[in-house]
Amino acid sequence: MKKALIFTSLLTLGACAGNPSAPGQNDAKNFPALIQEAEIAVRTSGEAGSEWRDASLLIGQAKMAAANGDMKTAMELATQAKRQGELSAQQAQEQKNARPWLF
Question: Considering the domain boundaries, does residue 58 fall inside one?
Answer without folding.
Answer: yes
